[in-house]
Amino acid sequence: MMRKMKKWFSGFLCLTLLLGLLPTAAWAAEDAGTLPDETDLAALSESEDVDSASYADNTVVTRAILAELIYQNETLKGVIGSDTKAFGFSDIGENTGVTKSQRTAINAMANARFISGVGLDADGDPLFSPSTTVTRVDAAVIFWKLTGSKQVSLTEIPFTDVLATEWYAPAVAAMYSAGIVRGVSETEFGVDATINVGQLNDLISQCADADLRQYPTAATRLEMLMKAYERYKYSPLATVTAKEIDYADIDACTKKEQEAIQFFTSRGVVRGYNPANNDDVNLFGPYDAVSNLQAAMFLYRCAITFDPDSVTGEQGTGTLEAQAVSYALDVPGGETGDVAAMINAAWALFAEEMGEESASTYQDDPDTAILAEDVAALTEALVPEAPSITIANSQATITAEDDAAIYYTTDGSDPTVESKRYADPISVEQGDTVKAVAVKNSLYSEVAAENGETATVTTNEEFLEAAQNANVTKIIVDGDITVDATPEAGETLATV
């Protein structure tokens, strides 16, 4: 099995070289071709010879043709897998113009999470839109996924029509930086240009040996959310609610993954976009790439959403147009707010929490696709330290890091943002257990607990007195002292 997996892996990696070998004309926007005749497709779907479909080279590639031709390649078929059970698309059945081989390929790629739906029908079932044409960025993203979603650093995108904040930018950037795709010119990628069958066949058939194992695997948008969800699902964000969105492309996600998507959506932290400016369709793009900047902006929104002084009300109505959406800024206010100020604030937050040197690793390379472990590292950097509790003279004093809110209890229960908020020293009685948490960046710290007095000592005498006090459970030594004493008979010094 391992040898077989290695064979599949080596095989699909070789696909990545073929784009770099193609001349610019292979991806040119000019003379893209013509759409297939729907009558011919319908007839073909009823024929017996469904696996030998052929198209003229100038036929414009649709989503159905893309899936079909990719899945006919044995190497890519090994990458995609053989799970061809019906995914549930309501517009690829019989009498829809979709051939049997196309239907098989679409289901396989959807089950393997390489393609998603584009909308929902009146019954809430996903739509695939098989006749929608495929653009250059569509193809780039699909092949980026098929070749392992690799992270390749890029400090400057040469294409003026590929904005760093667009959903496809990390994939295009990675593929271009690795020499896998080119633009239609030195300054233009041709994001909206379609591709034809001849160009697609070149992308598949001209596969040569290539090894991208030296490149790490980038995180997807869904993986970013899941890493953050592990921290935020029990955080103060749970008290903030807004509006859920019925996304059309998350059917392949597990129940937990769908819960995570809706968790951040309903907290007003993220939202999706409208394909082709269709206000009736909401997409999330769970398997799309996410850049360093986009991840930083997502976590920044998480950090500022919960306000201890004023819990955020309803947020996140509506969605954005496809070409205007920024996955870095697909948040309420992002389309009208001061984008530069928001980005600067995000980087300033991480510089404060993880140090300027560590934060600059991401800030200096904002457009590169981020790694899953880096999402986890950025999230952990936002977690506040546990507060410190000192009890003396029947008073409990609680301190925490700057800008953190403190919540506490005295009955032994774990505090939350529904507990009392600490402001001044609190009165406690002997035997009380004081627990406290710090809240910062919309996250809880670990719970701190103390059930006895704390004595701060500066001399031997004070140390001995504190050690023999049954109510003292913690001794803080302030300065250098040497304990040179023997307990009297029947007395026991506390262990410090």
Textual characterization of the structure:
With 496 residues, the chain is α+β, with helices and mostly antiparallel strands. The chain is 33% helix and 10% strand. The protein has helices spanning 2-13, 15-21, 38-45, 63-72, 74-80, 100-111, 136-146, 169-177, 197-205, 221-232, 255-266, 292-305, 339-354, 356-363, 372-381, 460-467; strands spanning 119-120, 126-127, 273-274, 320-321, 388-392, 395-399, 405-409, 420-421, 426-427, 434-440, 443-444, 448-450, 453-457, 472-477. The strands form 5 sheets. Strands 7, 8, 10, 11 and 12 form a 5-stranded antiparallel beta sheet that branches. The radius of gyration is 29 Å and the shape is elongated. Residues 1-32, 38-52, 206-210, 311-336 and 492-496 have low confidence and may be disordered.
The count of strands amounts to 14
Quickly count the helices: 16
How large, in whole angstroms, is the Cα Rg? 29 Å
Order of helices and strands: HHHHHHEEHHHHHEHEHHHEEEEEEEEEHE
The poorly predicted ranges are 1-32, 38-52, 206-210, 311-336, 492-496
- What share of the residues does DSSP label as strand, in percent? 5-15%
- The termini sit apart by 57 Å
Mean pLDDT: 77
